[in-house]
Amino acid sequence: MKKTKMLKKNYEFKQVLSKGKYYTGNYVEAFIKTNNQNINLLGIAISVKVGKAVKRNQIKRHIRENYRMQENKIKTGYSIVFLWKKKQNVENATHENIKKDIEKIIERADLQEENQ
Length: 116
Hints:
The protein is α/β, with parallel strands linked by helices. It has a single domain, classed as 2-Layer Sandwich (Ribosomal Protein S5, domain 2). Helix content is 36%, strand content 22%. It has helices spanning 10-19, 53-70, 95-108; strands at 5-6, 21-24, 28-34, 41-45, 78-84. A 5-stranded mixed beta sheet has the order 1-4-5-3-2, with helices on both faces. Helix 2 (53-70) links the parallel strand 4 and strand 5. Helix 2 (53-70) crosses helix 3 (95-108). The chain starts with a strand and ends in an 8-residue tail after the last helix.
């Protein structure tokens, strides 16, 4: 099992958030930008206003796991930043809700491999 490569630096997040294309779901928003590499880079940002650290980390784990399950179906060469919508209640942060949103975003962004 390969490990998901993550965006870590502030300038990497800023670049994707300012120049990437915006896609939205009911609970999760995504900014997607090509990165001219042969791998996908994942970034997750959740505002402090959403809730305390335990809840924010739980949402991050759900997003990371759902992305990992979809990773083999996604074209390579993109930087993707997922954001949790501030207006959504953290009680809606279930595995199924996030999974539906991420699948919908990937489909809208046309990132699915053709052979899948």
